[in-house]
């Protein structure tokens, strides 16, 4: 085999590995997006990098199977559910408490996967579909800077939210009290 042909084959293999990696990152997004688009919902993909920006310092904490503790969060609420219909209703209540209906939200199933961006009213209307594709923990945050967080824990069967959690790095490092840092 000559060197040129060998290099082409190596490059082709590398490109195929990149394509497969992208497919793995976006698999859940594609499954959900297909069903939402069929119902006329406008949405977009949120890249893993955008997910990290949306979660801010919380992105370094939880893993795929972990849940955040809401004890330290100001004005947080945690509610248990026993059926997926109850969970969907609690998600709607949490969204109503945290986001305006026309606010752009990000659904993050895992910080290393592609997420979903859609308006809060569309997310509330199709909460069951989002829950159908959740594995362990799902986070819902504002796509643009806003200090709120909704967490859906399938293992603990809870929906937790706080309208005043510092989910942006800049809001955590601005200062304490009246002292600017």
What does this structure look like?
This protein has 181 residues and is an alpha+beta fold. The protein has one domain. 41% of the residues lie in helices and 20% in strands. A hairpin with a 6-residue loop joins strand 5 and strand 6 (149-153). The termini are far apart. The model is unreliable at 167-181 (pLDDT under 50).
Q: Secondary structure elements and their pairing?
A:
Blueprint: H1 3-38, E1 44-46, H2 48-55, E2 77-80, H3 84-98, E3 104-108, E4 115-119, H4 120-125, H5 127-132, E5 137-142, E6 149-153, E7 158-162, H6 169-172, E8 175-176, E9 179-180
Antiparallel strand pairs: 1-4, 2-7, 3-4, 3-5, 5-6, 6-7, 8-9
Question: What is the compact description of this entry?
Answer:
With 181 residues, this protein is an alpha+beta fold.
Order of SSEs, N→C?
Answer: HEHEHEEHHEEEHEE
- Percent helix range: 40-55%
Main sheet: strands, sense, barrel: 7 strands, antiparallel
Number of strands: 9
Percent range for β-strand residues: 15-25%
Mean pLDDT level: 81
Structural class: alpha+beta
List the domain count as a whole number: 1
Radius of gyration equals 19 Å
Low-confidence stretches: 167-181
Strand order of the largest sheet: 1-4-3-5-6-7-2
Characteristic terms for this protein:
single chain; 181 residues; alpha+beta; seven-stranded antiparallel β-sheet; two-stranded antiparallel ribbon; 41% helix; elongated; disordered C terminus
